[in-house]
């Protein structure tokens, strides 16, 4: 039998304005930190958690509203020259999204949305 967390995870494009507790955010950060990475090079990834509404709005502007007004953004980046960086980021993002599902929160995976300057 498949774990329900995999069946229940969905790409959510509409969010409530309700704040997410710091405890839940910390649980999602822990999920990021436990993600496997290529060649044990966890230093190629960086996680930035954005809760500030003003900063979220600026990010929305440069990403053509691809963040769907989510109350918290988890931005994961990697070094350009990392051999496994893009894959590592994908695995870490999935860990965060599965943890969000377990916490009854919605999430969506958006790749490359913050590449504009």
Automatic annotation (TrEMBL):
GO molecular function, a single term: oxidoreductase activity
Q: Tell me the domain of life.
A: Bacteria
Entry-linked Gene3D superfamilies: NADH Oxidase
Q: Which UniProt keywords apply?
A: Flavoprotein, FMN, Oxidoreductase
Specify the signal sequence span: none
Obligatory cofactor(s): FMN
Using the record's annotation, list all stretches that form the Nitroreductase domain: 8-62
The entry assigns this protein to a family as follows:
Belongs to the nitroreductase family.
Per its UniProt record, what PANTHER family does this chain match? NAD(P)H NITROREDUCTASE YDGI-RELATED (PTHR43673), NITROREDUCTASE (PTHR43673:SF2)
Identification of the protein by name: Nitroreductase domain-containing protein
Native source species: Lactobacillus helveticus
Traced from the root, the source organism's taxonomic lineage reads:
Bacteria, Bacillati, Bacillota, Bacilli, Lactobacillales
């Amino acid at each position: 039998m498949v774990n329900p967390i995999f069946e229940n995870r969905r790409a959510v494009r509409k969010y409530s304005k309700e704040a997410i507790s710091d405890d839940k955010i910390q649980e999602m950060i822990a999920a990021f930190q436990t993600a496997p990475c290529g060649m044990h090079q966890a230093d190629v990834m960086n996680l930035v958690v954005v809760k500030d509404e003003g900063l979220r709005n600026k990010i929305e502007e440069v990403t053509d509203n691809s963040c769907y007004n989510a109350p918290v953004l988890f931005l994961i980046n990697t070094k350009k020259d990392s051999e496994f960086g893009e894959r590592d980021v994908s695995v870490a993002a999935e860990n965060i999204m599965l943890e969000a599902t377990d916490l009854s929160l919605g999430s969506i995976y958006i790749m490359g949305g913050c590449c504009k300057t």
